[in-house]
Structures are given as structure tokens and as C-alpha cells.
Amino acid sequence: MVHNTPPITPPDSPPGPARAGGNPGDVEVDYVDFQARPEFQELRHRFRRFVFPVTVAFMIWFLGYVLLAAFNHEFMARPLLGLNVGLWLGLAQFVTTFGITMWYVRFANRRLDPVTEGLRAELEDIAAGAAPNQAHETEAGTK
Hints:
Layout: E1 18-19, E2 28-29, H1 31-35, H2 38-71, H3 73-77, E3 79-80, E4 83-84, H4 85-128, H5 134-142
Antiparallel strand pairs: 1-2, 3-4
Helix pairs in contact: 2-4
């Protein structure tokens, strides 16, 4: 069945800062400038400093397992604790995956999320037309 529906095109919008929210009083937010801020760059640096080395290490571990399975059948077929080495290494792949996931969640909760929440609050303040941190400082003072 062929549908002759015209493609959906986004509304025309000028390049540059985006209008936040579309509500009266909302101001234009320059996301490119916000991304250039030192706090945002530090957040990206923290994320990359964790993710890239862990990804490379896991890929080496995974490719090592695949290469052993493909080219060293005798080693992978050796019995070890009731199973063969290949099965133990395959199970270790799952354990490693879950371990890395738990490690990343802990890292993100401690090192990324607090900074992200602060940056989000500042961006929301900018979008609402307040000076960054002005609304949140007022809220903190009234609590």
C-alpha cells in the first residue's frame, strides 16, 4: 500500500538562538554559547574521560575473546571447574558488562548528575528570562 502523504517539514525558524518554551516572557537561548561555557566543557571532559577508556578496554577484552574463540580452539576447549574455558570467558563477558554498567551509574550519580542539574537549572533560568541562578538562589533563601 502506497501513501501519498507529503513529508513533514519543520516550521521556518531563523538560525541562531532558539526561543525557549514559546511562552510570553521566554527569552531566546543561545545553546551554542551555553555549550561553550567552562562548566559545560568540564562536564563533557569528565564524561569522555570515563567513557572512552572504558569503551576501549572493553572492546579489547571482547575482541580478545572473539579471536581466542576463532583461532585457539584447543585453549577454549580446555576443561575448567566443570565447564570449558570458552564458556567461562563467555560468562565473564556478561559479568564485565554488568560491572561496567554499575560502575558508570555510580560515576554518573556522583560526578555528572550534580553538575548536570546545576547547568539545567541555569539554562531554565535563562529561558525564563531571569539572570542565571537568580531564581534558584531566591528559592533556596525562602526554604
